[in-house]
Amino acid sequence: QVHVVESGGGLVQAGGSLTLSCATSGRTFARYGVGWFRQAPGEEREFLAAITWRGGDTAYSDSVKDRFTISRVMDKNTVNLQVNNLKPEDTAVYYCAEALGNGWADPARTDEYAFWGQGTQVTVSL
Predict the structure, then answer these.
(1) CA 114 and chain centroid, separation
(2) Element (H, E) at 50
(3) I need a labelling partner for 14 at 20 to 30 A (CA). Which of 29, 34, 83, 123 fits?
């Protein structure tokens, strides 16, 4: 059984930073891409970043590429999302997902991903 678990969310002041972590188990972790998304109340799920199984290729949404960094910790089966210079509009539930395969045709498409976590809440205050 595959498990995808996010952690690291919380309440932070504008301008602050967080490191979100995604831990996966149940598949051979390193052979699948991983993506991060977020969803604010009343909004569509939004793609943020993705990384291939070796970590050699990454993809970012234009809206966050200057502030967010995705990385893979191979020996811990973990993918981190470093989020910097947070703004109130970054408030959302952040989700991690494991891709169907190593790479992707379009990392922003939710149907490229087979397994999703429950999400971690990020709240940014003024």
Answers:
(1) 14
(2) strand 46-51
(3) 34
Instruction: Compute how many other C-beta atoms are within 10 angstroms of the C-beta atom of residue 79.
Output: 28
**Dist. CA 15–CA 54, nearest whole Å:** 31
Taking CA atoms, 51 is separated from 47, 59, 81, 118, in Å, by 12, 7, 10, 19
Instruction: Please give the backbone phi and psi of residue 61, each rounded to the nearest 5 degrees, phi first.
Output: -70, 140
Task: Give pLDDT tens digits for 15-53.
Answer: 999 999 999 888 765 578 999 999 999 999 999 999 987
Name residue, tokens 């502030």: 67
- State the pLDDT at residue 101: 82
Between strands 120-125 and 10-13, the pairing is parallel
